[in-house]
Each structure stands twice: as structure tokens, then as C-alpha cells.
């Protein structure tokens, strides 16, 4: 039991650090720890915690933009090819087993839809696979001859070209920000900037909206070339040559290419088998007819120049090592998160330490080991660097308990704006406003911006920039619900899904939350909420926020006429995103579930998608209905 509690506590710390923008472990290690917890206690309340969301004009992908399964060595890739041929093309002798390979570009996946006359209709991001967001500035890419505005292909329903947006290696930043993150930031902006002109797009797939969706792999090369796209030619190899290509990639190709890569993509060549393959495996996350062969983690050595301590919105101090700049796979790294005070003490890390830095999966850097210990004894602070309050020790972490701490306030505002999708105001701008006007909370911040008091701080800044700050905050007030306000309070690890499961939709619901006497038998999330409510400062904060924002609240009516059925969803729905469908299900009083099991009551399927969930529902005799039937109570 102690092991589970410690694991949950650490996962929550990692999750908070990630959403604060200061990840302390890489995605692979985080997934591994979650899997460990699932094995130990699959019903743990931790798995009810939630993440973030994407904003912008939504596009439902007719064909889901899924990920792909991953392996980390050539032997596993060869075994995958062996499995594919043995199961789906066992009439072909092993001497003729081939596949296609291409680079796995580390950018932002996207799609370009061309209409029936071959004219560009829209450009969109992958999103989470089922629903993406429109990218408004495709005209810039047409003007820069990155993509064609029209292609010589006519059809009844149009065609999609899928590919990767990226920034060339030469546009690297001075800090450790991955180029993919910079690319994502440019794409999310609604206005064209100078950086927009730096974007590239490399095409890798053609999908038809008439008849069969998949294009033969050898024809993809032909079409992309004829239609004027930038593309990397898919190359055919015998499966026994995978190891040689992988070695060439590690030793030569990835340094020669102008784009950052995250391995190779291997694809089974028989397109006519793709639907059958996907029907026999889960397609919740990835297709099964291609494979990502990932590179091993890269590392180098450097020295620590200093250690900074950042304060999270919950008061946890996050140590960050400032490094002598090093470069790993064309990414400059100048800082790395150090997890906690206990991590520093255990590793004996300090100013002057020589450390081995690794980028697992070419993403988040972390310290692998200490090669040389500091000459000066490591000093752990006893005062908050932001407000000078005494710190306490909670497990591995240092915590500032001062709820008015300036560092906590800044982090809370950043978190709030992220929750409200008010993107475009940087940390430096927030810090200036908080420091100048002694901002105590989010309400003070909004009043200062909406009254335009902040403009004197930016006297040398263009009026457009000042107006942009005002517009972002003003627009964030549109369509606020009570649930948004509750979710933005910063109650540790509690998000919209948790509030819904606990039937907390309003301020009154939260204040009347049951206060059970036997606190040892409460779920983790209940303990967190009750502890939060026991603090008078938090209650005053709750009152102030709802008093200020109440005039902007636009709550939707809760239908709640269901009886707790388990509803699963597959395919796309006209005029509804996947989040909209999930909200409808929960408003009716039913449960949205991600997978089809024997406990599922209905599968919603509007466009006759016959992939993994559909076939599983048939196997288990689960009724398959349309959204219209569901809403009518069938």
C-alpha cells in the first residue's frame, strides 16, 4: 500500500510539472510508471485525473490520423515484418518479403484537403487523431511554394494529402526548446508572423475520399512528385536489410537531412490488407500496418552553472539546472528539470557538477548520471525564492505554504489562462504585470488588464501588441461555464471529469460536498477536495472568482435523463467533435467509455466505420446505434 501511495504521489507531481510547462521526466518513463500503477491497482482513483485541450475551428477527420506502434531495435522490426507476412501474405516466399521505409520527421502532423476540382479546401492539424484544428494561413505556404494551391486531380469528394509541418535545423532556438514545439506554437497562432514564412511541409501520404481510401505505396511517390509536393521518396527494401538501413540512419542519414527525425517508418506494402489488419487489432491509438523504428537515446556531458528554483501554483519548488550549453541532435540544451530536492540530495548535484545529459526519444532532456561531484557542498534552500517564506518538507519536495506567494500567483495565472485557452500572453508579460501592480490573484489580473492599467508598462511597445493582450483576456470571457471556473481553481490534480463524476457542477455543489468523518476511507480525489475546502483562504478565493466572473457564466442545461449506461463511440459525426459527443453522453446521465467490453451497453456509429470497436461490438452482441437513435432514447 505504501508503494502505491508513493507512486501516485510521484505521478501527480510529474503531471503537475508537465502542465506547468516544466516536465521532470520524459513521456516514456511517465507511461511506464502509469503502467506499473495499473498493474498494482487498476481501479486507483489516479486514473480519473485529466489533461488539457486544444482550441480553434475544429475539423473531424474522415480518416482518423492515428499514431503507429513503436520498437527500439531492428530485430523487433524484423519480427514485426515476419508476423505480417506469416499472417496476411503467407503465400509469398521469405526471399521476397519487402517493406517500404522513410524518415519519421519530428514535426507537427497535418493534412491538406483538396476539393473535387483539385483546389485547396483547408489545412488542419492532426489534433488527437479524430478531430484536428484548421490552420488559417495556407496561402502563405502556397506563396512560398511549400504546397500547391491546386492539383491536377478531379474527383467526386476530394482528396487528402497528409504530411508533417516542420522547421529546418538551421532555425534552432538558443534554448532547449524542441523545434517541434516551436513549430506547434507557430501553427497555433491565428495571425501570420515572420516565423510563419519559416514553416515547411513534407508530404507522405495520399488518401482518396472516393472509393478505397488508401493509395498504393509506389503510386504515392508518383502522385506527390507530379502534383508538386515536397516529399521523401518511400524506398523499398528486403526485410533482412532493415538493420543495415537503421545503422545508416543512425550514423549518417539523420545528420544529413535538414529536418529533425525521431526514427524510421516501416510500412507493410499490401494496401488491400490494411482494413483487415486494423480490424483484428485495437485501433484506439495506432494503425497496425506500419511501424516506427525509434533511435536510442542520445547523451553528452556538460557542467551545471547554477540551480534555479521555480514555484508551482501548488507551492512545490521545482529545481532547474542551468547548464553550459550543449547540443544533442541539433537541439541546444541550456537547462534541465531536477525533479525534486530529494533528487538533488541523492545525486549530490550542485553548481560545478559534471553531468551526463540524455534526451530519451529525442524529446525531454534529463540527467542520466553525475560524472563529477561539485566541490562546494550542495545547498538546499530553506526560504522561498519568490516570497522569502519558510519552506517545509513534504516527502521529496520543498513546499511554500504562503498562499499569497508571488511565484504561486504567477504560476496560477499561467495555468488559468491555459485552461481558458487564452494563449499568446507570455510568462515575462505576466510577471511584469504581477510585479508592478502587486497582483494577488486572477481577479486582480483581469481587472488590471480589462481596465488597461497595464499599458503604461509597455510604453515602448506597439499599440497592436497592447491591444492583443487586452483582446486575449477579453475573449477568454466568452462561453465560460461554472465547470470551467471550478476546473481553473487549481485544486490539486482535479479536473472537469472528476468534478462531473462527483456531481460537482457549480460553486454550491462544491461547497456542499459531503464531509465524511472517516477520512481514511475516502478516495484520493475526495481527500484533496475536502482538504482544499477546509482552508478559509481557498473559500475566499472561490467567492471572489465566482462573484467576479458570474456575469459571464453561460452554463448549458443538464439533460440527465439517462440511467448510467456505458456508451462507447466510433467514427465521426457531422457537426459534432468527439468532445461534444462525450459531453452529450455525460449530460444525459450515461457514462462515456473508451473501449468496447462486455459491460458496454451501446456503440454509437454514424458513418458505418467498421474497425476494431465495430467488430468487437458484433463479437459481444452489443447494439450498434446512431447518434440520432441515442438522443431519441432508443
How would you describe what is shown here?
This protein has 634 residues and is an alpha+beta fold. Helix content is 33%, strand content 22%. It has 21 helices and 22 strands. A 5-stranded mixed beta sheet has the order 2-11-10-3-9. Strands 14-13-12-15-16 form a 5-stranded antiparallel beta sheet. Strand 21 (602-605), helix 20 (612-619) and strand 22 (624-625) form a beta-alpha-beta unit. Helix 10 packs across helix 11.
Sum up the structure in keywords.
alpha+beta, 22 strands, single chain, 634 residues, five-stranded antiparallel sheet, five-stranded mixed sheet, 22% strand, 21 helices, globular
Describe the structure concisely for a colleague.
The chain is α+β, with helices and mostly antiparallel strands.
